[in-house]
Amino acid sequence: MTQAFDAAAQQALLETRAEAALALARRRGADACEVGASVDQGVGVSVREGEVESVEMTRDQGIAVTVYVGQRKGSASSSDASEASIRDAVEKAIAIARYTGEDPASGLADAELMARDMPDMKVHHPWALSTDQAIELALACEKAGRSVAGIKSSDGANLSTGEGVRVYGNSHGFIGAQRGSQHSLSCVLIAEDAAGMQRDYDFTTARDPQHLLDAEAVGRSAAQKTLARLGSQRPATGRLPVMFDPRLAAGLIGHLMSGAAGGALYRQASFLCDRLGESLFPEWFSLSERPMEVGAMASSPFDGDGVQTRDNVFIDKGHLASYMLSAYSARRLGMQTTANAGGARNLRISAPLSERGALLSQMDRGILVTELMGQGVNGVTGDYSRGAAGFWVENGRIQYPVEEFTIAGNLTAIFSGLVGVGSDIDTRGSIHTGSWLIDEMTIAGS
Are residues 429 and 360 in the same domain? Predict the structure, then answer.
């Protein structure tokens, strides 16, 4: 393993470096300055077919400096947080600022918005795992999957564990720091029948290693998902109800938030431009963020501008209630920051939930989508077209796997056509949701 990571010492060092950069920027004539610094350390293990493929030790650090000279902005960064590198970054940032055009929206977030409530988010849980123990867990995961009858081979199991510290400071006198950790284990398996080979996977991830699923359970689940795809057929072309697996439903929420992001809005590059207050979803559906949720994947008391985070409601009873804004994008739009510099944190839905079987019965005939391919989403128009794989549903029951087809629609129609949300909530990421049943989409198959 790499040398022990002393998070407290690293935090103190980064805070000192940030304060030094801010002081130097003032001395060099900057009217304002902000600094972001981070250091991360981890280990990753990859095994395949019972053999160790790789063991990777990582340690990354960096610092980014942004200065404001009047309404001119300059930024520079370095992968080295030494005093010399920081001095060089500050001087380069100031030199850049003197040659850039004035931007009335540039500058720090207002001082009165800086975070003051800085509780421990309980997101830092180091894992005292030796390299041998990491390899053992990855091998156990893969072995459990390979031992399931019908599995032909493995595409590998991977275990990663890491922790880090990030610090943000600005010339308002704000210095904020947060320590964090993330651990994960995944397995990809291969099965084959007369129709050809199929591949699928499963994974577990958590801030706290004690919350990871059992390694062998992950392997067995990956095997069952892989075997379920054998005998895949191509569905007929038509318009049918579509149910998105929870992981893919979270992706739909991601597209929504991309459209609600201030950067896309002030560039007029979003399908949600000028739609604040409009009805997008059924009135029984709401979506909010909870950035102060203890122990969650994206918790933080401050955003990328140092602004105090808070609960925000983005969809309120079906209506677009708020955009997702940083200080800069808010100024460009003539609005107020929503403390979302760096994105949304811990998105949660509020909706009546149905068991997965009940949603399938409600669908009656259609497709359950469990995998998407390609990047066919137009953020400007909302047009949506993705390659997909999943399962054909008839009379409310899964009949057989399907693949090599495309699902298409428009995000506005998809959102308004949401007819049910599953109770099968996937909590592994920062977006928590169950399956989504959409009333109708275009299927391009055989």
Answer: yes
